[in-house]
Design brief:
Distance between the termini: 36 Å
Order of helices and strands: EEEEEEEHE
Largest sheet: 4 strands, antiparallel
Number of strands: 8
Radius of gyration: 14 Å
Structural class: mainly beta
Oligomer: single chain
Strand content: 35-45%
Shape: globular
């Protein structure tokens, strides 16, 4: 019930997590040590190496799907992959 946001960028060797933001802390959702409060979200830059892929597990129990935002528009992950069941994982990778 607490919104968590992540900003990822495709780079030459994979994808890089550039920013994370959370509305409030909770079990497993603590802001980073350098987080600052901006417009109702604790925002920080996680220290994580470039990742080869990002696996998003969809769950029918959370009440909502992942939201993927590109530019100014956001859509549920399932709208990009309608053939994938709501309880399956989707792997995202950077393209050449």
């Amino acid at each position: 019930k607490t919104e968590w946001r992540e900003t990822w960028r495709a780079v030459v060797d994979g994808i890089r997590l550039e920013q994370a933001a959370v509305q409030s802390s909770g079990a497993g959702m603590e802001p980073g040590p350098d987080a600052v409060l901006r417009e109702g979200f604790w925002v920080w830059r996680p220290k994580l190496p470039v990742q080869p892929e990002l696996v998003l597990t969809r769950s029918p129990y959370t009440g909502s799907d992942w939201q993927i935002c590109v530019g100014a528009g956001c859509r549920p992950l399932g709208s990009y992959f309608p053939a994938v069941a709501p309880d399956q994982a989707i792997t995202l990778k950077a393209c050449d």
